[in-house]
């Protein structure tokens, strides 16, 4: 019997509605109709306002804190399962809670594993995400995971800048693999920052491994939260003789004093995607959309085509 490919339907969680509309447009479909009812105490209930029986549906929503973003995704998946959707693909441009991917001290949770199990328990049959904080998080799932790289978005932009004496930098040891992948694609040098933390989001000491004298430096990371690491690294590199420092960060969490730090720092530009909505509070931030990347992969997944090219850093 030949495989019959039915229509795919695309829906978006509340905070990812703008990105969802962009993805749906690039996919060549209308964003599906979901109504969310909210109780006085804050409890909410999403409702699909169209039939999804027997269809493949894509639910777009980043799960960055607060917890309501993850909860809405879980409720959307559960509602789709109970409405007899054939395949339920959770599209998580940003997979939240991913920094808790291991026990780094006694008596703490592994939140990334818990979130993976919750998504599967709710009914997700496939996960599509981008630039996980740690590659091994894919192993927390029993369902297929398509882990996309934002380098396919950032590399063309970096090449368009035509920066002389380009050097790629990692703001910490953990990001060295990502930095080396970018440097290989751009045929540039690499430097690494070594940092020690007093506690979460607080850096006690930072050193630079490598020479940035006379270089145009691009820092590469998967996310920017309080911007403490990036701004400290940028200032250190300028002190060590760099000509300019830019940063590429896929997921712009930008919490706490992040915007103030960016404005005061010597960072020339912060380049991010729209995996998370960005407040237009700094002229230093440039947003590159990930909509085309996700739409392209979703179309290939729906039509059972290979997406291996999107896994290449």
TrEMBL record:
<keyword id="KW-0808">Transferase</keyword>
<dbReference type="GO" id="GO:0016301">
    <property type="term" value="F:kinase activity"/>
</dbReference>
<dbReference type="InterPro" id="IPR029057">
    <property type="entry name" value="PRTase-like"/>
</dbReference>
<dbReference type="GO" id="GO:0005737">
    <property type="term" value="C:cytoplasm"/>
</dbReference>
<keyword id="KW-0547">Nucleotide-binding</keyword>
<dbReference type="InterPro" id="IPR000836">
    <property type="entry name" value="PRTase_dom"/>
</dbReference>
<dbReference type="GO" id="GO:0004749">
    <property type="term" value="F:ribose phosphate diphosphokinase activity"/>
</dbReference>
<keyword id="KW-0545">Nucleotide biosynthesis</keyword>
<feature type="domain" description="Ribose-phosphate pyrophosphokinase N-terminal">
    <location>
        <begin position="9"/>
        <end position="123"/>
    </location>
</feature>
<dbReference type="GO" id="GO:0000287">
    <property type="term" value="F:magnesium ion binding"/>
</dbReference>
<dbReference type="GO" id="GO:0006164">
    <property type="term" value="P:purine nucleotide biosynthetic process"/>
</dbReference>
<dbReference type="GO" id="GO:0005524">
    <property type="term" value="F:ATP binding"/>
</dbReference>
<dbReference type="InterPro" id="IPR029099">
    <property type="entry name" value="Pribosyltran_N"/>
</dbReference>
<dbReference type="GO" id="GO:0002189">
    <property type="term" value="C:ribose phosphate diphosphokinase complex"/>
</dbReference>
<dbReference type="Pfam" id="PF14572">
    <property type="entry name" value="Pribosyl_synth"/>
</dbReference>
<keyword id="KW-0460">Magnesium</keyword>
<dbReference type="GO" id="GO:0009156">
    <property type="term" value="P:ribonucleoside monophosphate biosynthetic process"/>
</dbReference>
<dbReference type="InterPro" id="IPR000842">
    <property type="entry name" value="PRib_PP_synth_CS"/>
</dbReference>
<keyword id="KW-0067">ATP-binding</keyword>
<keyword id="KW-0479">Metal-binding</keyword>
<keyword id="KW-0963">Cytoplasm</keyword>
<dbReference type="InterPro" id="IPR005946">
    <property type="entry name" value="Rib-P_diPkinase"/>
</dbReference>
<protein>
    <recommendedName>
        <fullName>ribose-phosphate diphosphokinase</fullName>
        <ecNumber>2.7.6.1</ecNumber>
    </recommendedName>
</protein>
<dbReference type="Pfam" id="PF13793">
    <property type="entry name" value="Pribosyltran_N"/>
</dbReference>
<dbReference type="GO" id="GO:0006015">
    <property type="term" value="P:5-phosphoribose 1-diphosphate biosynthetic process"/>
</dbReference>
<keyword id="KW-0418">Kinase</keyword>
């Amino acid at each position: 019997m030949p495989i019959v490919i039915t229509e795919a339907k695309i829906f978006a969680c509340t905070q990812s509605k703008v990105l969802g509309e962009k993805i749906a447009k690039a996919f060549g479909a209308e964003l599906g109709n979901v109504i969310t009812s909210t109780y006085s105490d804050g409890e909410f209930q999403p409702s699909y306002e169209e039939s999804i029986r027997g269809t493949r549906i894509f639910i777009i929503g980043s799960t960055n804190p607060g917890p309501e973003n993850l909860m809405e995704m879980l409720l959307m998946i559960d509602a789709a399962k109970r409405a007899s959707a054939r395949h339920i693909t959770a599209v998580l441009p940003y997979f939240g809670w991913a920094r808790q991917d291991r026990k780094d001290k006694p008596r703490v949770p592994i939140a990334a594993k818990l979130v993976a199990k919750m998504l599967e328990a709710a009914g997700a049959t496939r996960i599509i995400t981008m630039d996980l904080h740690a590659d091994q998080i894919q192993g927390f799932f029993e369902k297929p995971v398509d882990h996309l790289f934002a380098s396919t978005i950032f590399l063309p932009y970096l090449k368009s800048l035509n920066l002389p004496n380009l050097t790629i930098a990692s703001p910490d040891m953990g990001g060295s693999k990502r930095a080396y992948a970018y440097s290989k694609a751009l045929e540039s040098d690499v430097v690494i920052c070594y940092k020690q933390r007093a506690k979460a989001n607080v850096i006690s000491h930072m050193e630079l491994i490598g020479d940035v004298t006379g270089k145009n430096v691009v820092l590469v990371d998967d996310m920017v939260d309080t911007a403490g690491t990036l701004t400290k690294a940028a200032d250190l590199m300028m002190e060590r003789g760099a000509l300019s420092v830019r940063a590429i960060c896929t997921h712009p969490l930008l919490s706490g004093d992040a915007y103030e730090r960016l404005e005061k720092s010597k960072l020339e530009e912060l380049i991010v995607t729209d995996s998370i909505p960005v407040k237009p509070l700094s002229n230093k931030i440039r947003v590159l959309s990930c909509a085309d990347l996700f739409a392209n992969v979703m179309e290939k997944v729906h039509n059972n085509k290979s997406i291996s090219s999107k896994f290449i850093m």
